[in-house]
Design brief:
8 helices, alpha/beta, Rossmann fold
C-alpha cells in the first residue's frame, strides 16, 4: 500500500470498511496508524457513514462506530472557509455526488489524495473525461 503514503482524504465508503472492520478496513487502519500518515475526512462523509451503519445495525451501533472513528487518531475532520465553494465547483463541473465533491475538494485544499473503497462508476467516468486535480485512489486496488 505504498500509494497510501502522504496525506489522504477518506470517503465514507472507506470509512465504512474501517467501521465494519473488514479485511481491507483493518489493513487501512493499521497502515494509517503505523505509517503516521495524515488522514482526513469530512463531516458529510461521517454523516453518510452514520446513516448507512444505522440502517444496517441500528442507531446505537452507528453512533458508537462514528464516535470511535472521531475519537481515534486514524482520521481528522477537515473544514475550511473555502471548502463549500470548492466542493460546489467540483459538483458544478463534474457528475459526482455532493459527498464525493467534498472529498475531492478537501483533497485539493490539503494537497492530498482522495481515497474511495471501490471504483465508483461516476468517478471513473469523470477520470476518463479529465483527470482530477489530485490523485484518486481506490482501496480495492491497494489491498
Amino acid at each position: 500500500m505504498k500509494d497510501l503514503q502522504g496525506s489522504l482524504v477518506i470517503d465514507s465508503s472507506a470509512l465504512l470498511e474501517m467501521a465494519y472492520a473488514t479485511e481491507s478496513g483493518k489493513t487501512l487502519a493499521a497502515r494509517l496508524l503505523g505509517d503516521h500518515n495524515k488522514a482526513w475526512t469530512t463531516k458529510l462523509a461521517l454523516t453518510e457513514t452514520f446513516y448507512i451503519i444505522c440502517r444496517n445495525l441500528g442507531e446505537v451501533d452507528a453512533e458508537k462506530k462514528i464516535l470511535d472513528l472521531i475519537n481515534s487518531t486514524v482520521v481528522q475532520i477537515y473544514e475550511s472557509e473555502s471548502l463549500h465553494i470548492r466542493a460546489g465547483r467540483v459538483k458544478c463541473k463534474r457528475s459526482v455526488s455532493i459527498a464525493d465533491s467534498y472529498i475531492i475538494a478537501s483533497a485539493s485544499e490539503l494537497d492530498a489524495k482522495a481515497l474511495f473503497a471501490r471504483r465508483e462508476k461516476e468517478i471513473i467516468a469523470e477520470i476518463k473525461k479529465n483527470k482530477f486535480e489530485r490523485p484518486i485512489l481506490f482501496l480495492e486496488d491497494l489491498v
